[in-house]
């Protein structure tokens, strides 16, 4: 019996030695991670995002960036003709302030809103149903006006847009009703529909107002030579939520 125990002990010790040897070989064969990778650090999920105006040509966010909040805008898309693009670029030579021509043109139908993630699906669906209630309409371009955002951090030049049949006003009122359901800020009380085509930093209204008559005169000359550019036929409403774009047809 003693001999049998010795055999078992020897066998057990041998197995343990073999296991240790296999582990040592595995460790030697295992590639070590480079120091550059070992130095990597993950970003905390709730780390606050710092917005640097230098990354946006000096522009400042109108609201703080927070996870789960989606910047939202309801608008009418506008594609300017070559003639109007040429006119807009020619305006830069006449301006007393430095700024830039806006490349993506539109007519805002809401403020820039903050939409919660869990609202997006229902908000988009309700907006779609709302648009189906309204007929297509026409907008006329009239004159050049100056605008400034609420924070007085940016000033804009825009082409004023007029709708004679009242559909645009009724549509805006209906949109305000939808925004109220989500406890979102309504559109401006004294609505001035326009296509912003130029922007600059700061409150420059005083300087730009002086040249509005000459800008309107040159705009009207351009429109007189290209009558088709006087009007915009609106058949759908756009909505941008975060990086997603929606288009809702009017009836």
Automatic annotation (TrEMBL):
State its location(s). Nucleus
Q: Which residues form the active site?
A: 106 (proton donor/acceptor), 194 (proton donor/acceptor)
* Enzyme Commission numbers on file: 3.1.4.-
The protein's UniProt keywords, in alphabetical order, are: Hydrolase, Lyase, Nuclease, Nucleus
Superkingdom assignment: Eukaryota
Per its UniProt record, what Pfam families does this chain match?
HVSL
**What biological processes does GO assign it?**
U6 snRNA 3'-end processing
Show the GO MF annotations. lyase activity; poly(U)-specific exoribonuclease activity, producing 3' uridine cyclic phosphate ends
Q: Which GO terms describe its cellular component?
A: nucleus
Give the matching InterPro entries: Usb1
Q: Does the keyword GTP-binding apply?
A: no
**Gene3D superfamilies for the chain:** Cyclic phosphodiesterase
What does it catalyze? a 3'-end uridylyl-uridine-RNA = a 3'-end 2',3'-cyclophospho-uridine-RNA + uridine
Tell me which family the UniProt entry assigns to this protein: Belongs to the 2H phosphoesterase superfamily. USB1 family.
Q: What does this protein do?
A: Phosphodiesterase responsible for the U6 snRNA 3' end processing. Acts as an exoribonuclease (RNase) responsible for trimming the poly(U) tract of the last nucleotides in the pre-U6 snRNA molecule, leading to the formation of mature U6 snRNA.
Q: What is the official name of this protein in its record?
A: U6 snRNA phosphodiesterase
Q: Which organism is it from?
A: Dinoponera quadriceps (South American ant)
């Amino acid at each position: 019996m003693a001999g049998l125990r010795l055999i078992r002990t020897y066998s057990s010790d041998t197995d343990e030695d073999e296991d240790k040897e296999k582990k040592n070989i595995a460790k030697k064969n295992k590639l070590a991670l480079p120091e550059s990778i070992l130095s990597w650090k993950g970003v905390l999920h709730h780390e606050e995002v710092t917005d640097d105006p230098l990354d946006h040509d000096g522009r400042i966010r109108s609201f703080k960036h927070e996870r789960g909040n989606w910047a939202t805008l309801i608008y009418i898309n506008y594609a300017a003709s070559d003639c109007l693009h040429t006119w807009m670029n020619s305006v830069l030579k006449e301006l007393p302030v430095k700024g830039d021509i806006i490349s993506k043109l539109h007519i805002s139908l809401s403020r820039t809103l903050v939409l919660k993630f869990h609202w997006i699906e229902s908000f988009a669906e309700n907006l779609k149903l709302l648009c189906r209630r309204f007929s297509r309409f026409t907008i006329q371009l009239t004159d050049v006006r100056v605008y400034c955002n609420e924070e007085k951090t940016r000033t804009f030049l825009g082409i004023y847009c007029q709708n004679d049949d009242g559909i645009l006003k009724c549509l805006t009122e209906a949109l305000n009703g939808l925004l109220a359901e989500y406890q979102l800020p309504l559109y401006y009380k004294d609505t001035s529909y326009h296509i912003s085509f130029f922007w600059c930093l700061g409150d420059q209204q005083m300087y730009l107002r002086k040249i509005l008559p000459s800008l309107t005169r040159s705009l009207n000359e351009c429109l007189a030579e290209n009558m088709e550019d006087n009007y915009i036929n609106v058949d759908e409403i756009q909505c941008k939520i975060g990086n997603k774009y929606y288009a809702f047809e009017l009836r």
